[in-house]
Structure formats: structure tokens, C-alpha cells
Amino acid sequence: MEENNLSSLEHEIKRRRTFAIISHPDAGKTTLTEKFLLYGGAIAQAGAVKGKKSARHAVSDWMEIEKQRGISVTSSVMQFQYEGFCINILDTPGHQDFSEDTYRTLMAADSAVMVIDASKGVENQTRKLFKVCAMRNIPIFTFINKMDRESRNPFDLIEEIENELGIPTYPVNWPISSGKDFRGVYDRAKKHIISFEATGGQNRVNSVEADLSDESLGELIGADNREQLLEDIELLDGASEEFDLEAVHGGRLSPVFFGSALTNFGVEPFLESFLEMTPPPLPRNSSAGLIDPFDSSFSAFVFKIQANMNKAHRDRITFMRICSGKFDKEMDVLHVQGNKKMRLSQPQQIMAQEREIIDEAYAGDIIGVFDPGIFSIGDTVCSPGKKFEFEGIPTFAPEHFQRVRQKDTMKRKQFVKGTTQIAQEGAIQIFQEPYTGMEEVIVGVVGVLQFDVFEYRMKNEYNVELIKEGLPYSYIRWIDNKDIDPKTLKLSSDTKLVQDFKGNYLLLFSSEWNIRWALERNEGLELSEFNRGELQ
Ligand code: G4P
User: Fold this and answer.
1) Percent of the chain at pLDDT above 70?
2) Burial class of residue 284, CB neighbours in 10 A (0-12, 13-18, 19+)
3) Is 469 within the bounds of a domain?
4) Among candidates 441, 432, 402, which has minimal Cα distance to 504?
5) From ligand 1's centre to the CA of 32, what distance in Å?
């Protein structure tokens, strides 16, 4: 019996794949996700997830402010089944105003799919998200999308990814032309082409497979395309890296696929290869060493807290990534940071578009639990017999800053309470100018929408109106040297010294030039862009 349980645990965990999809807005992340769900049978027709802004609300319409702005503030998680795999997709907000949550979500993924628009190449937001994935050395798969439009030369695109992101690539397939003439892809491992045929439908497309040597190839893809393809393959085989799965798993080589999410060209072959190459749940570092996902005792960490999903109840939903074992809704768990045994309340998962209360879940899965306000980002939950803490979630450098205070001086207490609580949840970061008390607070955010959420919540939940003043800084760096007296640093006049609420010193800069200036004038000064959560 025991053995049976173990093998079913192993079977369940082995078939899990938990990944994030990252891209710059409009590259096609939502369209690609939707096609995955469609293939997995989780939705019945294209357009159910994305498309009209109103349809999008069905998925993540949790906060009032989302309705007002018609965008997705939150990152959501979707689970579906495909060919025996149990897939968890971590969605990252697609709008320009993405937030620190987007970065934190990446901490819960075992790999990432990077969607790139073939006519645009590497864009700003992709660059930022990539950096965070690269920090964890997780595998990163590239899907070059919109090949049905006039695209840039595929060799140039590959070169740009390698140069801009600093990761070698391995094209798993190669496009046959682009735009109206896009015919399909050449699969380098199988050495054959998959030619697609537009069906006008939104589901699967017809595809024909043929060998390079097939007489009929010219007819299938056109004589010119055949010629070009042969030339490309020769160049590619001569120039590109060897395929090395270990390097892929270490985040040192990105497999590249070409396709068109909208027309379904190349999506299914991509999904299949990707699922084969991407790893099942990975071990995670903790104060007790690496925690093996197949360990039968349950453990998880909190990577996201969603406040007030139900305004009537002022509740919070805390999202946890299960790192080992199996979760059972009847089980007792230990909240390590709170040193408290408890039962997780209303555990739920998001299956495609619906939130469902669940009875069990496995390593690799993400669960949302009802939180009366006890969890913080990075907290560990585990079986009561164990007691360890997972490596914390880094604090990411905000890029926008405001100085804020309350309009009504009588509301001081609420101002301090609201600001502190919202910061504890991780919705904003707060800083102080040393020695000024908490009269005014500097709020730092990764995406400007966080300012709106903060202001909205201060008004609605704490009844405090704010006076805000934009600050001209765009960069913040943690001072890593513990032995430096920050007051003695030589800084340019437009650099500001601040402290976070743990007492760490940081510097605010208005340009990268100022950062270099500070480093040059202060020998030995060490600055960092992330503040890694340290193990106790
Ligand atoms: P995002 O989540 O990365 O922001 O991108 P999303 O999927 O919403 O796609 C952005 C736009 O690009 C959408 O058009 C979508 O239809 C289009 N698109 C996605 N994949 C492809 C592709 O392979 N080929 C082409 N030609 N277009 C693609 P839209 O007009 O902005 O939105 P909608 O009116 O279609 O909803």
C-alpha cells in the first residue's frame, strides 16, 4: 500500500510541468497560451481567453481596478492536461504596466517560454523578464511568433537574442519563408519539413511531413523556398551550437522554435518538443539543504499575495508553489515563519478559466489559499514534522518613485498602517530618507500601475487620501557592503541615500551614468539590483 502511494506520488510529480510565459506586450503570449489550452481540451474554442477585453475579465477579473482600466493587473495560473502531462502555466501580466508580482511569479516556475515577435525581435520587457529567469538559471525556451507576417531575417533574430540576452541558442526548427508565403518549418532533429495548411479554423491545422530529399518538396513549399531552405540548413549546421540538453536545463542554451500562434502553424510541434525537454519539478534550496520534490512530505512557499479579491470580505488569497510531496486539504501544515500549526483554508486552483476548490495537489502545482493576513511573500509551509525555510524571494529593484504623505493630517495613524501593510504584502516597496521619521514615505514600484493600486487601496481600505510627488529617479541599488558608513559615500548631487524598513541602505539614481559615477568615486562599493532573500 505504502509502495503504491509512493509510486503514484512519483508518477504525479513526474508528469508535472510548471512554466511561465514571458514576453513584451503584444508579442502573442495570450494567443499562444490559448492555443495550448485548446490542445489540452481545457477550452473549447479560440477567443475564450483572449481577444475581447471583456472576455479577459472572465479569467482574472479580481480587482475593481482591473475593471476600471480594462487590463489584467494580476498574474494568474492555469492548469490543464496534455498527452499525459499535467501543465501549470504561470501567466505574467501582458500590459506595459507590469509589476513586481510579475517577477515574483517567475520564482515559482521551473522553466520559461519566451515569446518574441518576429518582426520586432527582443523588446524591453522581454529583456527584463529574461534577466530574472537567467538569475535562477532556469531553462528558457524561445518561440519566435508571428511568422505569418513579414518577419525579420531568422538569422538576424537569432543573433540578436544571443547578443542582447547573452544566451547561446539552438534552433530546433527553421522557418520556411514568412508572411503570406510562410509554409512551415524544418525540423532539424528529424530532418524533415512540416508544411502547414491554413484551414481558416482556429483549432488544429493540417500538416504534411516530407523529407528534404522528397521529389515533391518543390511542389509542396515552392522551388524558391526549397532552394533557400537548403542554403539555410547548410549555414545553420555549420554555424550553430550543438544541441546539449544539459546546457538547456542549466539555462545556458535556449532552444528556439518558429511559428505563428494565431494561425496554429508550429504550435503543436513546439508544445510537444518543449514538454519533452522541459524538466519536471526541480529541487529547491532551503535552510535544510536542497528539498527533493519527490520527498513524500509536503512543502511549499508563498510567492504572491492577492489582496481583496472579494471586496465584501476583505480577504486575501495567498499563492503557494508546492515544492515537495502531496498536499491534502485535510492535512495539518506548519507555517514556519509564524511557527503555527494550521490547516490551509479553501485551497483552490485555477483550471483554465475557473477557480476550483481542490482536495489534493502535488509538487509543481500552485495553490491559492484563503489568508486572514498571516502570510508574507517568501514564507514556507511544510509538514509539521519538518521545520525549514525555503530560500527567500528576492526584492526587485523598483523603477518608479513617489514621495507620499496623507492629505488629512488627522489620518496619520491610518496612513502609517496602510502603507506598512500594503508594503508587507509586497504590493509596493517603501523607503525612508534617513533621520526624517515616517512623516513622508518614498514609494517605489516596478510598474506604475502599482501606484494606482496603492492609492486606490489606501482610499478604499484605509480611508486615506494621498498627496503624491513624483521623483526623478529610475534606478535603485542595494549597498552590499556591510562595513561602509553610507554617510561618507561620495555621491553626485542628484543621487539620494534612502533606507528600507529593515534598515538596509540603498541609493536612488536618475541615470545609469550616476551609478557608474558612484562606483568610480567610491572604491570597493558594491551595489546590487536584487536583494536576495537570505536563508536564516
Ligand atoms: P500578448 O498577450 O503578448 O500581449 O499578445 P496577444 O496574444 O494578445 O497578441 C497581440 C496581438 O497579436 C493580437 O492582435 C493577436 O491576435 C496578434 N497575434 C498573436 N499571435 C499572432 C500571430 O502568430 N500572427 C499574427 N499575425 N498575429 C498574432 P490584436 O489585433 O491586438 O488583438 P485581437 O483583436 O486579435 O484580440
Assistant:
1) 86
2) buried
3) yes
4) 432
5) 9
**Structural contact between residues 293 and 281, judged by C-beta atoms closer than 8 angstroms:** yes
Domain boundary at 382, 416, 450, which?
382
203-246 confidence digits (pLDDT tens): 667 777 777 887 788 888 888 998 999 999 999 998 877 899 99
Cα separation, 347 vs 332, in Å, equals 13
pLDDT digits (tens, 9 = 90+) for 431-454: 998 876 657 899 999 988 889 889
Say if residue 223 is in the same domain as residue 273. yes
Tell the residue nearest (CA) to atom 16 of ligand 1.
Answer: 262
Task: Give pLDDT, residue 77.
Answer: 80
Helix spans in 240-266 (H) = 245-249
Indicate if 125 and 57 belong to the same structural domain. yes
What is the C-alpha separation between 109 and 18, in angstroms, rounded? 6
What are the DSSP calls for 2-66, one per residue?
HHHHHHHHHHHHHTEEEEEEEESTTSSHHHHHHHHHHHTTSSSSTTSSSSSHHHHHHHH--SHHH
Q: 302 near 318, Cβ under 8 Å?
A: yes
Q: Which amino acids bring their CB within 6 angstroms of ligand 1?
A: 23, 25-31, 50-51, 94, 145-146, 148-149, 260-262
What's 332's domain CATH number? Answer: 2.40.30.10
Number of the ligand 1 atom closest to the C-alpha atom of 24? 3
Q: Whose CA is nearest to atom 35 of ligand 1?
A: 51
Number of independent structural domains in the chain: 3
CATH of residue 493: 3.30.70.3280
154/41 same-domain check: yes
Residue 43 pLDDT exceeds 80: no
Structural domain of residue 231, as residue ranges?
A: 23-72+113-277
Pick from 221, 245, 277: which residue ends a domain? 277
DSSP conformational letter for 297: S
Question: Averaging pLDDT over each range in 219-233, 282-296, 448-462, 498-512, which range is the top one?
Answer: 282-296
Shared domain for 208 and 65, answered yes or no, is yes
pTM: 0.88
* Residue 365 shares a structural domain with residue 404: no
Provide the pLDDT for residue 3: 52
User: The domain that contains 202 carries what CATH number?
Assistant: 3.40.50.300
Q: Quick check: is 238 in a domain?
A: yes
- Please check the confidence at residue 123 and state whether its pLDDT lies above 80: yes
